[in-house]
Design a protein that fits this description.
The protein is built from two helices and 35 strands. With 377 residues, the protein is mainly beta. The chain is elongated, with a radius of gyration of 34 Å.
């Protein structure tokens, strides 16, 4: 005789299975009953007696469905009676939703034209409307401090002093997005972290360092499509930055800024600055470096052969070096198709790829540059 053991019950081959509780009663009855119940469950609206209606697929669970996905069916989770959702992958987009500064209608409004005058901050917790909080006035700008996140500002003039402590994105959505410091502080103050600034005009800021943009300990800074104008500071009228920041400025203009000390347009102390297809012009420094003052820093300027007037030009300083003043004991200078460092002693500027590294000189020394490169004293 062959025996099988399973769950405390002994089965005898070719005999009926036993149950520990019944001493041999057939236990298949309950299973057969369950199978019978499943087989008899209604599969259709007619079987269940429900009334079908046109329902719309609601993937994001906001109560509004995709008008392109409709079926006649019984009430079902994930299907709703209201259509009109123009983005069923975003629960914040549906008829009646609050508009955000993102260049599209969150309320699925066919009459929507733009998001002018809106401000939205987005972080890991979601999107927040800051339109009212950032509604400052000239002379009394709104002040706001942010952690990591993304601030989108739509068309309009925003009188603000904005401070970021751990990295972030600040972008203009639409044309004519102006950040005005109201003459009461730096427009943007950037602490540690990585930053991306784009599509903005930054003007009328006033600070001790960097009236327009003051960078204090940021790791990486990307600037694209900015106009930085009419800002004032003791150092770096438009932009002030230092170690360890690596900054890349593309398709941007620094003009009409002023420093009571050095660096009318830009002041760099340590770190690295790359200007690509950008212009630093018509800035003024009471001290040195009307355009750029760079101390112990790496400075690179790359132009665009198809565009005239790129580079550092037509700036003024009351002390020396109207365009670029290189100070300290070590610097690296690289330029390509860029009108850089054009002074009385270097009327041609730099028009080819040249570099100067670890070039030490005294505080009153000058250098001259022409098409062959730079020569120190």
């Amino acid at each position: 005789m062959t025996l099988f053991f399973m769950l405390g019950c002994t089965f005898v081959l070719d005999d009926q299975p036993c149950s520990p509780d019944t001493g041999g009663t057939d236990t298949n009855t309950g299973i057969d009953s369950a199978d019978t119940a499943l087989d008899s469950a209604p599969d259709t609206a007619e079987d269940s007696g429900c009334e079908t209606s046109a329902l719309f697929r609601d993937v994001d669970g906001d109560g509004f469905g995709d008008p392109e996905l409709s079926e006649d069916r019984c009430p079902t989770e994930g299907w709703v009676a209201e259509a009109g959702d123009c983005n069923d992958a975003d629960a914040d987009v549906h008829p009646g939703a609050r508009e955000r500064c993102n260049g599209t209608s969150d309320a699925c409004d066919a009459a929507w034209a733009n998001d002018d005058g809106l401000a939205t901050f987005t972080d890991a917790l979601g999107a927040i409307d800051l339109t009212a909080e950032l509604a400052g006035i000239d002379g009394a700008p709104a002040f706001a401090a942010f952690g990591v996140g993304s601030l989108a500002l739509c068309t309009g003039t925003w009188f603000v002093n904005l401070s970021f402590t751990a990295g972030g994105v600040v972008s203009g959505v639409g044309d004519g997005v102006v950040l005005d410091g109201g003459g009461a502080g730096s427009v943007l103050d950037l602490g540690a972290g990585d930053y991306d600034l784009s599509g903005l005009t930054v003007r009328n800021g006033a600070g001790s360092a960097g009236g327009g943009i003051s960078v204090n300990g940021a790791d990486n800074l990307s600037i694209t499509g900015l106009v930085v104008e009419a800002n004032t500071a003791a150092i770096g009228g438009g932009l002030s930055m230092g170690t360890p920041t690596v900054a890349t400025i593309v398709d941007s203009t620094f003009s009409g800024n002023a420093a009571t000390g050095d660096g009318g347009g830009v002041a760099v102390s340590g770190g690295s600055l790359l200007l690509r297809s950008s212009t630093v012009s018509a800035n003024h420094a009471t001290g040195q470096g009307g355009g750029i003052y760079a101390e112990d820093a790496a400075l690179t300027c790359i132009g665009d052969g198809a565009v005239e007037g790129l580079g550092v030009l037509e700036n003024a300083s009351d002390a020396k070096e109207n365009e670029v003043r290189l100070a300290g004991r070590s610097f690296t200078l690289l330029a390509e198709s860029c009108d850089l460092a054009r002074t009385a002693s270097s009327p041609l500027g730099i028009v080819s790829v040249e570099a100067v590294s670890d070039f030490a000189y005294g505080p009153d020394a000058t250098f001259s540059c022409d098409s062959t490169g730079c020569v120190g004293p």
